[in-house]
Each structure stands twice: as structure tokens, then as C-alpha cells.
Amino acid sequence: MSISEAGIIMADNPREVTHEVAFWRQGHLGLNAFFYIAIAFASYVNNYTFSTLISIAVIIYFLFTKPEEHFFFLVGFVPFEAVFKTFALNSCFVLLLISSLKLIFNKRPIRISVIGLISFVLLVFFEIINDYGKVSTGALLIFLSMISYLFIFVQFADRKCFNFEEIMRNTIISYFVVVMFSILQYGSFEAFISAVSDESMLVRFGEQNNPFGGAMGLPLYSALIIAMIVASVIIKHSLRIREKALLLLAGGFAFIFGVLTVSRSFLLCIGATVVFLFLSLVGSNRRKVFVILAFTAIISVAIYFVAENYINGVAEEYFFRSAHDAGTGIRGRIWESCIDFLRENPSGYLTGFGIGSYAEIGESKSLMFSAMAHNLYLDVIMSVGAAGLLCVIALLDILRKRLKKTLDTGFRIVSALPFLVYLTFGMTALSLTNLKTWIYLMAFIVMVYATPGVQIVSEEKNEQN
Q1: Which of 147, 289, 368, 388 has the lowest CB atom count within 10 Å?
Q2: What is this structure's pTM?
Q3: Whether the Cβ atoms of residue 103 and residue 152 lie closer than 8 Å to each other
Q4: Which residue has the higher pLDDT, 66 or 378?
């Protein structure tokens, strides 16, 4: 094992990591899993006191852990952002504030990009002039804290510890928690089994009373899990039998429950993944890609023959939705409403109408976008305008450059698959009002460069070695 100038442990075996690092990671992963379950359980039982205690415990956890661990936690935490409350008030901004402050005061030289600073100031300015006095103080604090976290994260991204697999593990764990408590919304596991066994009771899984991202949450999480697993399997040179089994289980789990959501956005992302894999057949990983495609086809056929009646019922439900909501459906009318409003109010093209305000404007005028734009790209324009969009792109480009310089693992196109799926899903959903939009955006850019099997360590650790 050797350490490069960038502080990267270059292991001959990709699984080779120090026991100290492995123990540290496993301990934090276990704590993260505990908190995800506790937050979801507090929401499920609707207990005000328990919810507050768990929120305070998470805040204390943030006070005594490193900011890079905060990032891994937040990647898995985002499905629970709406139910993370202290004294009945959403407390997500407190976590972002603590993490931001710990990034700033980490006893390292501050390297501020001038372009990044200007972009940050403009985004904050646009948000304040558009939303101040029009949304609640709590909502404004959350929006500003998300913008601030993006800026600070970008400035210090080249000095933190990032890892593809760590992001994937936290995402998979929180996904299992979301699915488990979504099943409990049926009343019990037995009631859920009865529901999925009865063709006459077909419903969109996760749509009813789901506080963990709503009807569009599970399709997104399912598609992203599949993309991350596919990318990990292709990139890693070798996998133990246990690792293969766990990844297969998680991928199959995500595919089944993704299909049960009867979401066309999920199918769109699966289509993008399949196209990506077919294009990859011409590359050096074609054998792995071929095996993945062939295995997926075999398993799909096997599942169909085992549960033919139910699969047919799900297919009919998809067809029913398409027949009554053809093409882009109501989303198309929402997009048209956004575009028409921008034409009537051209100043909005530049600075937008506010992350939280534009939907309220739509509601007050009885316009279709009263429930948000249902398109990430239109949502950004409606929220912070073209100028704000350029600011976000500038910050993300700085993040990309710093990650590339620091991690120095080389660009692998397959590592970008989760980011591609995220952008594909953004064509039909996602909003800047949600923490997951910001955190996932950062996480999947990190994953492009944080190749599986490469562990980044701090400069102090480098000096000790």
C-alpha cells in the first residue's frame, strides 16, 4: 500500500483499507442506520416528545463528529427531512449550520474562490429579495442554509474525505428504512402482502400517507440505488461472494419496489440506465455489462413466471395511467404554465420568483404550477432565474475541478451513471425546496471522481505515514 501526494491510499487490492479507518466507518454507518430508523419510527408513531429527543440526539451527534461524516449522514438522511422536527419545528437547517461552521473552523487555510463567492452572494441576494416576507422565517432559513452549505461544501471539498461506497451504503440503508415504514403504512406486513397479492387492490406503493419523499420519493430512491449498484459492480475489479449477494439483494429489492410505485419517472430512469449499459458494451467493461444485462433479463423472466397474474396487473396499472394521462400528462400543462408565466413576466427569467414563493404565486393566481414545476430545470429558473442557474453551475464546476485535482483517480464514465439517472429524474420532478435536491446533486458529482476502492485520508494522516 502506498500514499500519493494527494493523500490517497493506493491499494493493490481495492478492498485494502486500514483497520482503523474500517472500524471508524462501520461505527458511523451503524449510528447513521440507528438514527434513520429512530427518525422514521418517531414519524410513524407520531410522538412529539420522541421526535424532539431524536432530533436533539442527531444535533449532538453532529456537534461531536467530523463534517465529512455529516455529508455521508445527510446523503441517507434526505428522505426524512420533512419529519425531522424539534419541538414541532423542522430542524434541518440546524444540521446544515453545524456542518458548515465545522467546515469553516477546521484549522485549515481557507481557500475561497472569487467566482464561487460572487455566485454565493448573488444566490443569497436573489433568494432574499424574492422570498423575504413571503414565506415563513423557518422556510427562508432552510433555503438559505442549503445555499450556504453548497457554497461552503464547494470551498472545502478538496480537503475532505469522500468515498463512492460510503455514499452508496448510507443511501441503501436509508432506502430499506423508507421501504419498511412505507409497508407499515398498510397497517402491518401481513396487510401489505395481502394487498400485493390481490389484483383488485393494486395501488401505487408509497403514494398513500408517505412522509418520506411522497409519491415521487420511492421511485427516485429506487432508480438511484440501481444506478449506484450497477456502477459499483462494473468499476470494482473483484467482488467477494458476500458482496455480490448483498448488492444483488439490494438491487433486486430496489427494482421490485420501484416497479410497485407504478411511476413512469422510475421507468424513464431504468430506460436511461439500460441505454447507458448498451452503449457501454463497446467499452472495456463490456463483459461485466453483458453479464448484468443478461442476468437482469433472466431474473425478470423468472419473476414474471412466478407471479404472472400480479405482474400483469401492475402492467395494466401502468397502461391505465398512460391511457388517462397520455404523454407528459398533467406535467406538460404545468410546464406550459411556467413558460407562459415567464413570458408574461420576463424579469423572472433573470432572477426568478423565489424558491418558496413561485408556487404560492401560482396558487394565488390559480395557475398550474401551484404545486411546483415538476421539472428541476424549470424549477431552478422559476426559483432563482437564469442568473441563479449560472451561479449554481459555477459552484458545481468549482466542485468538479477541486474533486478532480484532489482525488486524482481519473474520470470513469460509468461513475457518472447515478448522476445521469438523477438528471433524468429531474426532467419530471425535484425542487430546490427539498434538501435531497441539493445533497444528491453534490453527492453524485462526488461519486464521479470518488472511485470505489480508493480511500482518501487527511493531510495529517499522510504526514504520519
Answers
A1: 368
A2: 0.86
A3: yes
A4: 378
